[in-house]
Amino acid sequence: MVKLPFTDRTEAGRLLGAELARRKLPGHVIVLALPRGGVPVGFEVAKILHAPLDVVVVRKIGVPFEPELAMGAIAGTSVEVLDQRLIDEFRISQKQIEAVLAKERAEVQRREKLYRGDRPALDLHDQTALLVDDGLATGSTMVAAARHVCALKPVKTIIAVPVGSIGACERLQKEADELVCLATPESFFAVGEWFVHFPQLDDKQVQNILEESRLSAVIK
């Protein structure tokens, strides 16, 4: 039984990595973290599993007049997950949706370039894709990430998080071959409530973590 709250993302990543190591995953695992909060978790998991670390850039699609309220998510340049019930409820037009999508597609491309530079994304063919985030609230962004990754034809897709809502975990079980979640509290408002320290990360911090992971792999 995992004791909540976690101290921080680093501790959560170590605990998650230890659990995954106990499960003896298939060889050729690639850890794919969701920026920004999933990257420090993924970094610890990748270290424990001796696996390469990469990112899957996912963006929330916010309601035009209430950007913090998600009406869906986008991953890569093509995978879109939309909450049609919410869209209908708020009478959001197709034109409004397309405007938000265009903005978020541009942001996905910006972050892909920023985080990866000129390096291509890791090839998932014949690999086990291990998707990692710092937690699941609604699960919308992870759904988009999982569908994007599945389209790249890995041999197996696993979603792994330290904490998640019961509803989100039930939803994500249908999107991957396996779901690993260390804790599913009954009362769940936000991911951050399950961490003592839960600071927001900036792009530079994400770049530094990814670079440290790459240098560690070269040294080994």
What can you see in these coordinates?
There is one protein chain. The chain is α/β, with parallel strands linked by helices and 220 residues long. It has 2 domains: 9-59 and 117-219, Rossmann fold; 60-115, no CATH class. It has helices at residues 9-22, 38-49, 84-89, 94-116, 140-150, 166-172, 203-219, and strands at residues 29-33, 53-55, 58-63, 66-75, 79-82, 128-132, 156-163, 178-183. The two termini are 33 Å apart.
Question: Can you tag this structure with a few keywords?
Answer:
220 residues, Rossmann fold, three-stranded antiparallel sheet, 41% helix, globular
**Which structural class do the helices and strands define?**
alpha/beta
CATH class of the largest domain: Alpha Beta
Mean pLDDT: 93
Shape: globular
DSSP strand (E) fraction? Answer: 15-25%
**Number of H- or I-type helical stretches:** 7
Strands in their spatial order, largest beta sheet: 2-1-6-7-8
Q: How many beta-strand segments?
A: 8
The figure for the number of domains is: 2
Q: What distance lies between the first and last C-alpha atoms, to the nearest angstrom? A: 33 Å
